[in-house]
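Lecture 7 notes: from sequence to structure.

We start with a single chain of 95 residues. Read the sequence below before looking at the structure.
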Amino acid sequence: MFSVCLLGVLVLMILQRLLNYGSTFMIGLIVTKILLAIGIIGVVGGLVMLGMERTGRRNGSRRIICGRNLLIASADSQKVLFKHCLLVNLYLKRR
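Now the structure, written as tokens:
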């Protein structure tokens, strides 16, 4: 779980660098939209996996990528990206 969160922090650092410069700003916005879509897919996938684990069709007791972990990581990334999008939107409105 820690390595998934660390990967998310590294992706956000790269995204911040893309958004800092005018020449790569649009690329940063596109990457943000792609990450939001991946996060939504992760939340849906986590819910499906969690449902399968609860009904007994999948054993997630000793797996790193189980429904609960995927759901938590995806929901947290969605929360951070949503806040990031709000800040970028406020920044653009002030210009």
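Residues 25-55 form the longest helix (31 residues). Keep this in mind for problem set 3.
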